[in-house]
Design goal:
- This protein has 455 residues and is mainly β.
- The chain has a single domain, classed as YVTN repeat-like/Quinoprotein amine dehydrogenase (Methylamine Dehydrogenase, Chain H), CATH 2.130.10.10.
- It contains one helix and 36 strands.
- Strands 1, 27, 28, 29, 30, 31, 34 and 35 form an eight-stranded antiparallel beta sheet that branches.
C-alpha cells in the first residue's frame, strides 16, 4: 500500500466571476459583468476532506454541471457521501451535483492488493458516464459480468445504473489502459485511443477505435502511426468528427504526412485526422524533450499542453525552457501555428467551456507566476506542492487570471474538466496542510480533498 500522499477528489474553479476586464475578443453582457464583479474569481465555496487510503484518477462533468470522479481505495470504511464503500479495497465512482450534493457513489471491491485504475472518463449529452481503465484482479465486476484482468470499458446511466462493461483487448497484443475517450454524438459512438507495446521496446504504437455507445461493441480500429514508435496520452473530437491526438514519440515516425524525428529519448507530438483516420497534418516538437499531456479543441483552434526541456520552434522563434517548463501550443485546423506560452514546471490538463474560455492546470516552482502576478508560495517548497490554475484569453493566449494552491506536503495536478458555464473541475493529489482559499485544511496521509470554487 502506498503511504505518504493522497488525492484530492475534485476541485471546481470558476472561469468567469470576479473583478477584472473580460477579453475584448468576447465581451459578456453588462448584467453578467455587474453580477460577477461582486464575487472574487475562483473563490472557494466547498471543502470536503475524505479520509482514508484513496487515490484519485480522473474527473468529468456533464452538460448540467454535475461532476464525476473516479478513485481507488485501499481501506475499509471510505465514504464518498453515500455510506461506506464495499470491502477493504476497490474501485469507486461518484457523482456530485453542482452545489456539491452527493448524488450517488459505486464501489467495486478488489481482494488481491493491486489498485484498479480509471484512465479516462467522459459523459454524453444524455448524462451517461463512460469509463476506461484496467485492473489486475483474476476477475472484477464493474456492475455486470466479471471481467478478466486487463483493460476495460464500461457505461453507466445518469443514476449510476450499470449498462454494460467489456474488456478492451486484442488477441496476442499487450494493450495499455485506454488513454482517452470522446463521444461522437452524431454517430452514436465512442472514440477511444489505446496504446500497445511491442515486445522488447519501451514504446509500441497506438490505435484509435470506434465503439458502439449502445452496447460497447468494437466497430473499427485504425493505427495512428504508419512507421515508428509513439504513445497517445490524449484525444479530442471535433463536432465535424475530426480527431486530434497528442502524446510523445521517439526516433523517426511517419503518421501519413512528412516523417519527423527526434534525437531525444522522447518528444511531444500532435496530429489531426479525418473521422475515418486519414491523416490531415501532424507536428513533432522535435527540439524538445518531453511529452504532450492533453489536447482540447474549440472552433478553429487545437490546444495542446505538456511539459518539456530544451527549445520548441514556434512561428519562427525558439521557445526556450527555463529548466523544465509547461507549455500551451495552439494550432489552426490546417496545422498553422497561432500562439504558444510556456510557464511553470508542467501543464497536466487543458479544457474549454461553451464560450471557448481556456483553462489549464499544472505545477509551478516557488516564486513563479504563470503570466500574471507571482503566485503564493511556501519557502523551502518545490513544484510538487504548488499547483496552479490559469485562465487564458482565447485569441491571444494572454493571462486573464490565475490561482495558486499550496500544501506543506504534496499537491499534484491531474486531469481537468470544465462545465458549460465555466466551472473547472480538477483532481489533484494532496497531503498535509493545504491552503485552498479558506485557510489551511489538514489532511492525514493518503486522504482526499473535495474542493469546489465559485464560478
Amino acid at each position: 500500500m502506498r503511504r505518504g500522499w493522497g488525492f484530492g477528489v475534485a476541485v471546481c474553479l470558476g472561469l468567469g466571476c470576479g473583478a477584472g476586464v473580460e477579453s475584448p475578443e468576447s465581451p459578456p453582457p453588462r448584467a453578467v459583468l455587474e453580477r460577477e464583479m461582486k464575487v472574487e474569481r475562483g473563490a472557494t465555496r466547498q471543502v470536503r476532506p475524505v479520509e482514508g487510503s484513496v487515490f484519485g484518477w480522473t474527473v468529468s462533468v456533464d452538460r448540467t454541471g454535475n461532476a464525476f470522479v473516479s478513485l481507488a481505495y485501499e481501506r475499509g470504511g471510505v465514504d464518498l457521501g453515500g455510506g461506506a464503500l464495499p470491502g477493504d479495497a476497490g474501485l469507486a465512482l461518484a457523482k456530485y451535483a453542482p452545489d456539491g450534493t452527493h448524488l450517488w457513489s459505486l464501489g467495486f471491491a478488489t481482494y488481491n492488493g493491486a489498485s484498479p485504475r480509471v484512465s479516462a472518463m467522459v459523459t454524453d449529452g444524455a448524462g451517461n458516464l463512460y469509463v476506461a481503465g484496467e485492473h489486475r484482479e483474476p476477475t472484477l465486476s464493474l456492475g455486470g459480468a466479471p471481467l478478466p484482468a486487463g483493460p476495460f470499458l464500461a457505461k453507466y446511466a445518469p443514476d449510476g445504473t450499470h449498462l454494460w462493461s467489456r474488456p478492451a483487448a486484442l488477441p496476442g497484443v499487450g494493450l495499455l489502459p485506454p488513454q482517452a475517450l470522446a463521444v461522437d454524438e452524431a454517430r452514436g459512438q465512442l472514440v477511444v485511443a489505446v496504446n500497445f507495446v511491442d515486445k522488447g521496446w519501451p514504446l509500441g504504437a497506438a490505435l484509435v477505435g470506434r465503439v458502439r455507445a449502445a452496447d460497447g461493441a468494437v466497430l473499427a480500429s485504425s493505427p495512428v502511426v504508419r512507421r515508428g514508435r509513439l504513445a497517445v496520452t490524449s484525444l479530442a473530437l471535433e463536432p465535424s468528427g475530426h480527431i486530434t491526438v497528442a502524446g510523445f514519440f521517439e526516433g523517426e515516425v511517419d503518421l501519413g504526412g512528412s516523417p519527423f524525428a527526434t534525437a531525444h529519448p522522447r518528444s511531444p507530438f500532435v496530429a489531426r485526422f479525418t473521422p475515418d483516420m486519414r491523416h490531415v497534418w501532424s507536428r513533432g516538437l522535435s527540439g524538445a524533450e518531453g511529452t504532450a499531456t492533453g489536447v482540447a479543441v474549440e472552433p478553429g483552434r487545437i490546444l495542446v499542453v505538456g511539459e518539456y526541456t530544451g527549445s520548441i520552434p514556434f512561428r519562427g522563434r525558439p521557445q526556450v525552457s527555463e529548466g523544465k517548463d509547461g507549455f500551451v501550443a495552439v494550432y489552426g485546423p490546417t496545422g498553422g501555428e497561432l500562439w504558444m506560452r510556456h510557464f511553470g514546471e508542467s501543464v497536466t490538463g487543458v479544457a474549454v467551456d461553451e464560450e471557448n474560455r481556456v483553462v489549464v492546470t499544472g505545477q509551478y516552482r516557488p516564486g513563479e507566476s504563470v503570466g500574471g502576478p507571482v503566485l503564493p508560495w511556501r519557502a523551502g517548497g518545490t513544484a510538487d506542492n504548488h499547483l496552479f490554475v490559469v485562465k487564458l484569453y482565447r485569441g491571444s493566449g494572454g493571462h486573464e487570471w490565475s490561482r495558486g494552491l499550496v500544501s506543506e506536503g504534496v499537491l499534484r495536478a491531474g486531469t481537468v474538466a470544465v462545465t458549460r458555464r465555466g466551472e473547472a473541475v480538477l483532481l489533484p493529489r494532496v497531503e498535509g496542510a493545504a491552503d485552498v482559499g479558506k485557510g489551511p485544511v489538514i489532511t492525514p496521509p493518503d486522504s482526499a480533498l473535495f474542493l469546489r470554487f465559485v464560478r
